[in-house]
Structures are given as C-alpha cells and as structure tokens.
Amino acid sequence: MDRPPADPYQRDCPSRQVLDRIGDRWTVLVVGALSDGPLRFSQLAARIDGVSQKMLTQTLRALERDGLVTRTIYPQVPPRVEYELTEAGVTLQEPLQALENWAKTHMPTILTARQQYDAALPAVNTP
Amino acid sequence: MDRPPADPYQRDCPSRQVLDRIGDRWTVLVVGALSDGPLRFSQLAARIDGVSQKMLTQTLRALERDGLVTRTIYPQVPPRVEYELTEAGVTLQEPLQALENWAKTHMPTILTARQQYDAALPAVNTP
DNA sequence: CGGTATCCCGTCCGATACTG
DNA sequence: CAGTATCGGACGGGATACCG
Predict the structure, then answer these.
(1) Which domains are seen in chain B, by residue range?
(2) What are the residue boundaries of the HTH hxlR-type domain, all occurrences included (chains A, B) (predicted)?
C-alpha cells in the first residue's frame, strides 16, 4: 500500500480533520437523531434540545459535505426538507452508538470522581 | 431504577458533559497514546504532534478529574511524572479505538466527498 | 522536567433580523 | 418552513515568561 499511514498523532494527518468533525458538540447528536430514519429540519431541531437554528444548519451542511447525510428538498409550499443518513453515515452511527453507550454507562462513576476530585481541592474563592 | 434516564438529547443531561469531554480535540489522542502503557508528560508531548503544553496539561487534568487517568509523581530531581489509564480509562479506550478506526477507514471517502461538494459550489470570491 | 500565570487573538456560537 | 446574514460576547487555545 503506497498510501501515507493514517496516523492521527501527526498534525497534518487528514484523520485529524475527521476527528475534529466528530469533535463538535452537535454532530454526534444529529447522527444519533437520524439513526431511526429521515427527519425534517424542524423535527431535528425539536428532538435535539438546545441546538440553535444556526448550529443545526451548520452541522447538517458539514455532514452533507462529508457525504454522511443527504438533503432532500420537496418543492412544496411551505417547503419540506428531509435529512437522511447515507450508507457511510450509517456506518458512523455504530461507533458513535458505542461511545454514547459508554457515556451513559460510566457517567455516574465519572460524576462521582469529579465530586471527589473537586472536594479534595484547596477551597478557592471562599473568602 | 429511579435514576433519571440518560438522554443526551436533553440539554441538561449529564451525559452531554461526558460527550463534551470527548469532544475536545486532544482527549481522544491522549487516551489513545496511553493505551500501550504509562507515559511521562514529555513523552506524551512528543508523541502527540501539535499539542501545546497548556492543552496537554489541561486535558490530562480533566481526565484525572474524571477518574480516567492517574497521575503519579516520583519525587526525584528532576521530577518525573507518569500518566496511566485507570480501569475506567481502559474501557473508554475501546469505543475510541472504534472511532479512530472508522476515521481511518472512511477518511478517503470523506475527503473525496468534500472535494466534489466544494467543486459543485458556485464560485464565490472570484470577481 | 513539569508545570502555572498571563496575554491575546481567532473561532465558536447564540440572538436577532430578514428572505424565498 | 427552512433557511441566510450579521453582530457581538464568550471561550478555546497558542505564545511567552516564570517557578519548584
């Protein structure tokens, strides 16, 4: 194989860019929300609590650009736009699901660890 | 079970915080770098290309706070500090590995999709 | 060696207003 | 309904300097 090794530990490795995409807050949630089937823009917005219209649009555009989501416009009045995971998007959904499950499973442990860590700190800001 | 459902789609769900931690650029890489065994601070810095001292410290502190990494100081001159994944940290390493593999596998496809998407755009900034 | 403290700039992102 | 455009505050994160 003559392709350069995909080593994310190197600054300029393209897989860094991929990880950066995953890195943003909303990508994981959007992909998760679409895992049950296509949804309209407004349905996504309703399902994902706290996302702004701007961020939802931005995230969806990025996913579309990466070929992970398709955007279908139904020429009606009022317009209807549906988003759906592509084949590649579905494959992403699997590792993300694993991550989400890990988060759900270990969340209590982590929260406890945080409290202990914070409790052991010198009491700053307590005059 | 009387614990509230861990639904990341709700704004105030604690698992959002967990996903946010994963979300930062360096956590994934640090955990990956530690998967082969404990490393010193300088070794981590050398291994992860592009990370600043500040960010490495910050990431390690966050991981330590969450109980995913232990920090061991060997009282010597000059000092030596080693970081190692905890049991919980090792369990995280697994889903992250899956994500990293996904990134490596689908990176070429994504890069191609991006080029096509960008090429299809109206030529902005070309007066 | 392994940090902490400070400065400072870029970007993220929410709020708001407007359009097809 | 599903966006785009613009503004502005918050914050991430790099560079630098200094400490135990």
Answers:
(1) 15-120 (1.10.10.10)
(2) 13-111
The string of DSSP letters for B10-71 reads STT-HHHHHHHHHHSHHHHHHHHHGGGS-EEHHHHHHHSTT--HHHHHHHHHHHHHTTSEEE
Closest Cα in chain B, distance from residue A38 (Å): 17
Output the CA–CA distances (angstroms, integers) from residue B76 to A60, B46, B73, B80, in the order listed: 52, 21, 9, 7
CA-atom Rg of chain A in angstroms: 19
- pTM of the shown model: 0.87
Q: Tell me if B95 and A102 make a contact (CB, 8 A cut-off).
A: yes
- The distance in angstroms from the start CA to the end CA of chain A is 63
Could you state, in chain order, the average pLDDT of each consecutive group of 10 residues for chain B (127 residues)?
61 74 84 95 94 96 95 94 97 88 88 91 48
- Cross-chain residue pair A65–B117, CB shorter than 8 Å: yes
